[in-house]
Write a structure and sequence with these properties.
- By secondary structure, the chain is of the alpha+beta class.
- The chain has one domain (6-212): Gcn5-related N-acetyltransferase (GNAT) (Aminopeptidase, 3-Layer(aba) Sandwich).
- It is built from six helices and ten strands, in the order βαββααβαβαββαβββ.
- The chain is globular, with a radius of gyration of 19 Å.
- The protein starts with 5 loop residues before the first strand and ends in a 27-residue tail after the last strand.
- It binds coenzyme A (COA).
């Protein structure tokens, strides 16, 4: 295998190679993992899934890395927001603390609307080609695409040491939990549940269990609180 690899958007034709790569990376029983709850029966988010490939000795392209992303949802405290733009702009530490503490103490079970986040992953690289920066490149491109598409933030289940460099921190510190949080035997999984804001204040006011989106829900990039657009100029015509 050539050391020269490149990344590109995932294509439908990649599906079989991706499945085999994921089997090699995570084992054939990966579909039995609890995190599959987020993915089963749902499609990954178009535009966020990336692959790495290289040419083998015969010149055929061989897939050697993949990252995917899935839409999930979490409740937003309606009383933490006076307007959508307010949430985006609010990132003071004191507010974070208040939101965290309030979410933990009360659970904020009422008055919550659901907002979408990305569940990043799986991220996998061909075992024989690890340590060349493929994983980090794929993840960086995945997150950059999420930022461009206007997503608020991303969560994932993974090794904190690996993801810290991208800004991921313990999701529980923000009051975000896996839907099965509370089962004593799964504390280690909670410690691997991480979150990252993809825009300033993107995770403010979001607390509680991160859940799968309902089956059949459209899996499209969402811009529920879009970044400010330039003001239209007088006489501007849409292109
Ligand atoms: C995790 C994984 C995607 C990394 O891919 P990769 O292409 O080897 O990663 P990169 O080359 O970009 O980064 C390598 C660095 O990450 C570190 N790293 C790799 N796996 C790690 C892990 N599980 N925990 C902490 N650090 C890890 C390496 O030590 C190396 O550190 P260095 O840069 O200081 O030398 C790959 O090891 C893999 O496919 N693992 C199996 C599947 C998996 O666990 N996926 C992540 C959970 S979704």
């Amino acid at each position: 295998m050539s050391a020269a690899w490149r990344t590109r958007a995932e294509r439908v034709a990649d599906t079989e190679q991706i499945e085999r790569l994921l089997d090699r990376a995570f084992g054939g029983e990966r579909h039995l993992r609890r995190s599959e709850l987020f993915r089963q029966g749902r499609k990954p988010i178009a535009g966020l899934c990336r692959v790495a490939e290289a040419q083998d000795a015969s010149g055929a392209a061989r897939l050697l890395g993949v990252v995917r992303g899935w839409e999930v949802q979490v409740g937003k405290d309606s009383d933490t927001e006076t307007s959508k733009e307010t949430v985006k702009e609010t990132s003071q530490q004191s507010d974070k603390q208040t939101s965290k503490e309030t979410g933990r103490k009360t659970g904020k079970k009422t008055g919550k609307e659901k907002v979408p986040l990305i569940l990043a992953g799986p991220l996998a690289v061909e075992p024989s080609l690890r340590g060349q920066g493929i994983g980090k490149t794929l993840l960086a491109e995945h997150l950059a695409a999420g930022r461009r598409a206007g997503w608020r933030g991303a969560v994932l289940i993974g090794e904190p040491e690996y993801y810290r460099a991208f800004g991921f921190r313990l999701a529980a510190e923000r009051g975000l939990f896996l839907p099965w949080h509370g089962a004593a035997s799964l504390r280690s999984e909670t410690m691997r549940f991480l979150a990252l804001e993809l825009r300033l204040g993107g995770l403010e006011g979001l607390t509680g269990a991160v859940e799968p989106v309902p089956l059949g829900k459209s899996q499209k990039p969402r811009k529920d609180t879009p970044a400010p657009k330039p003001k239209p100029r007088r006489g501007h015509e849409p292109r």
